[in-house]
Automatic annotation (TrEMBL):
<keyword id="KW-0464">Manganese</keyword>
<dbReference type="InterPro" id="IPR024084">
    <property type="entry name" value="IsoPropMal-DH-like_dom"/>
</dbReference>
<dbReference type="GO" id="GO:0000287">
    <property type="term" value="F:magnesium ion binding"/>
</dbReference>
<feature type="domain" description="Isopropylmalate dehydrogenase-like">
    <location>
        <begin position="5"/>
        <end position="345"/>
    </location>
</feature>
<keyword id="KW-0479">Metal-binding</keyword>
<dbReference type="GO" id="GO:0051287">
    <property type="term" value="F:NAD binding"/>
</dbReference>
<dbReference type="InterPro" id="IPR011829">
    <property type="entry name" value="TTC_DH"/>
</dbReference>
<keyword id="KW-0520">NAD</keyword>
<dbReference type="GO" id="GO:0046553">
    <property type="term" value="F:D-malate dehydrogenase (decarboxylating) (NAD+) activity"/>
</dbReference>
<dbReference type="InterPro" id="IPR050501">
    <property type="entry name" value="ICDH/IPMDH"/>
</dbReference>
<keyword id="KW-0560">Oxidoreductase</keyword>
<comment type="similarity">
    <text>Belongs to the isocitrate and isopropylmalate dehydrogenases family.</text>
</comment>
<dbReference type="InterPro" id="IPR019818">
    <property type="entry name" value="IsoCit/isopropylmalate_DH_CS"/>
</dbReference>
<dbReference type="Pfam" id="PF00180">
    <property type="entry name" value="Iso_dh"/>
</dbReference>
<protein>
    <recommendedName>
        <fullName>D-malate dehydrogenase (decarboxylating)</fullName>
        <ecNumber>1.1.1.83</ecNumber>
    </recommendedName>
</protein>
Length: 361
């Protein structure tokens, strides 16, 4: 029996609602497979934990997480209890940085039957490779002076290594997909970092002669995500540009509640972390209506990372079939609850005898 050791951090808000659902789905997949198991270790690190302990995770939190095969996280943030910058730097960003999860992969694709806000959505299917450790999210900056003289300063930091790493990741991915990389830039030289970004892109591109490329200013690109998303394959973007583009990716699918993500430690030295694109959604927390699909699709990305690609593919197909059947939460035009959507996915996995036979080892 192959066992995967997974650290589970439900976090705040709807993270606490959708994470248990995704774990049930993973357990169902393990049952169907027959030859593998998940050992989930839960960590109650969130804003309530902060109120009790004065920190988002224990002093040795990072060492505790170090030994796991992967980290499965819901969302972090309860601004009514703890300021966002405290909770995020203390948990989410801390894990991303300490474990050098420098690449954030965020797919978006058209699903049949979903209420996309696009009037005539064509079948789009792209992946945003977001630089995940530097850029506009650098720690260089601060606030000086007071009152009407106050100044906030944020320095974006783009290292050649970090920029090149994100781009190579995107080109490698494009080689396995449709052979096209789009760079999200702002190359008119107003922002100092972007001509540098373009230079690195030009340099990396030379090593991938078979991959076609395009470069768009981020403002135009954001609009193209809405007007012609079907033209994109792999999109490489800086930290903040990638953050914004991937909420648009979620929105054009029908809801940010669907969009999955993977924070990847590329050298395999540390665990990678799997958490959806969406946040803790305080506005709907406690109502049982959060869309669990983003978290469940994120579980599929974790399966891929763990080498269980066939199982992940099956999960994606079943998820898509359940959505096409109209079993969906309110954010995508349905009436089902979080639990009803999950149960439909679980039932369909169990009923699908063909899957069982194919995956049984
Ligand atoms: P959000 O993603 O939590 O919510 C934005 C909108 O999308 C809300 O209207 C919400 O109801 C809806 N939504 C999000 N997920 C949904 C789901 N699964 N099903 C249905 N609807 C869903 O973003 P926000 O409101 O800007 O942030 C709320 C908190 O979450 C803040 O504290 C923020 O810092 C934090 N946050 C955390 C993460 C993370 O941990 N990865 C990501 C984004 C935001
Ligand atoms: C995301 C979130 C985070 C980010 C926030 C909560 C720091 O928006 O994962 O997309 O900007 O990276
Ligand atoms: Mn975001």
């Amino acid at each position: 029996m192959k066992t995967f050791d997974i650290a589970v951090i439900p976090g705040d808000g709807i993270g606490k609602e959708v994470v248990p659902e995704a774990l049930s789905v993973l357990n169902t997949l393990a049952e169907i497979h027959g030859g593998l198991a998940f050992q989930f270790t839960q960590f109650p690190w969130n804003c309530e934990y902060y109120i009790e302990h004065g920190q988002m995770m224990p002093e040795d939190g990072i060492q505790i997480l170090q030994g796991f095969d992967a980290i499965f996280l819901g969302a972090v943030g309860n601004p009514q209890l703890v300021p966002d910058h405290v909770s995020l730097w203390g948990l989410l960003i801390k894990i991303r940085r300490e474990f050098e999860q420098s690449i954030n992969i965020r797919p978006a694709r058209y699903f049949e039957g979903l209420q996309s806000p696009l009037v005539h959505p064509k079948a789009f299917d792209f992946i945003v490779v977001r630089e995940n450790s530097e850029g506009e999210y650098s720690e260089v900056g601060g606030r000086i002076h007071k009152d009407e003289d106050e100044i906030a300063i944020q320095n974006a930091v783009f290292t050649r290594k970090g920029t090149e790493r994100a781009m190579r990741y995107a080109f490698d991915l494009a080689r396995e997909r449709n052979g096209h990389v789009t760079s999200a830039t702002k190359s008119n030289g107003i922002v100092h970092s972007m001509p540098f970004w373009d230079e690195v892109f030009q340099k990396v591109k030379v090593d991938y002669p078979e991959v076609k490329t395009a470069s768009y200013h981020i403002d135009a690109l954001a609009a193209y995500f809405v007007t012609r998303p079907e033209q994109f394959d792999v999109v490489v973007a800086s930290n903040l540009f990638g953050d914004i583009l991937t909420d648009i990716g979620g929105a054009i699918m029908g809801s940010i509640g669907i969009a999955p993500a993977a924070n990847i430690n590329v050298n395999g030295k540390y665990p990678s972390m799997f958490e959806p694109v969406h946040g803790s959604a305080p506005d709907i927390y406690g109502k049982g209506i959060a869309n669990p699909v983003g978290q469940i699709w994120t579980a599929k990305m974790m399966l891929d990372h763990l080498g269980e690609v066939e199982l992940g593919q099956k999960l994606l197909e079943v998820m898509e079939a359940v959505l096409a059947d109209g079993i969906k939460t309110v954010d995508i035009g349905g009436i089902a609850t979080t639990k009803e959507v999950t149960q439909a996915i679980i039932q369909r996995l169990k009923n699908d005898k063909k899957v069982g036979r194919k995956l049984a080892r």
